[in-house]
Amino acid sequence: MTQVSPYQPHRFSVAPMLDWTDRHCRYFHRLMSKNTLLYTEMVTTGAILHGKGDYLGFSEQEHPLALQLGGSNPQELAECAKRAEDLGYDEVNLNVGCPSDRVQNGRFGACLMAEPELVAECVSKMQQQVKIPVTVKTRIGIDEQDSYQFLKDFIEPVAEAGCETFIIHARKAWLSGLSPKQNRDIPPLDYPRAYQVKADYPQLTISVNGGIASLEQVQEHLKHLDGVMLGREVYQNPYLLADVDQQIFDDPQPALSRHQVAELMLPYIENHLAQGGRLQHISRHMLGLFQGCVGARAWRRHLSENAHKKGAGIEVMQAAMDLVPEHQEA
Questions:
Q1: Which of 178, 181, 271, 294 could form a disulfide with 174 if both were Cys (CB 3.0 to 4.6 A apart)?
Q2: pLDDT at 86
Q3: Active site residue 163
Q4: Is the Cβ–Cβ distance between 239 and 291 less than 8 Å?
């Protein structure tokens, strides 16, 4: 096993996923891996500066934690980055990868790949305001602009502006004609493109994202890159995280069992309910915990049918746990 020292936060991370990686999901994920870098959902600068919700709240247990920002106004991004640092975030990440129409209309996300000088200015303004790392998550191209030279022409000015870490979703984005969901599947993956970036810019920290489904695949990518980011696979099969600390970070501490993870969530759930929250706000993130185990379907069904009901409490979670024989964990 390769020795990993000192700790490299981008060596393994969970992708920012809209409507999925909220604070409850991140708390749950953190129970299974203390080293994985976690990301918020993308939060727009407008929501932070003008919205009335608590868009930046998190639990101290979630560290290391990065805030992903959506926006293209350098001053607004700098103000949001400063707020994030003041609250204790460990990193601020700029989204240059989301292809949705709503994002394009706001002039942020993947369409910013066509404006590298603007992205560079955004990074520079943010870094003037904070001491925490400012990173960029991008695609390998957009529409017909998908040559390696196009990617280099994006990375070089942004790196010169001070960005030392790029997370590359190894697909290009079609800004029209494909939905965001289709953009996660239809454009072909090109991992060697990310490998080439690392080879050409060895001073940069380069992580890859997109279509990665196992820790074996993670280990293969780490032969070429500094880090790997997983998204949907972790969300759908969260117990994958239980092996990350040992396999990816060479941390000898034994993993918790699935039942232990579920038990540790109970006090958190009780606190959420006491503050007026609903069980389903948390349980929806836990449906895949017992994937591959005898009783996994019964676990999912019980939570799906009962967690949304008014007054549902931890007894629903405990009853679901009883449907999975602890000695039969896969």
A1: 178
A2: 98
A3: no
A4: yes
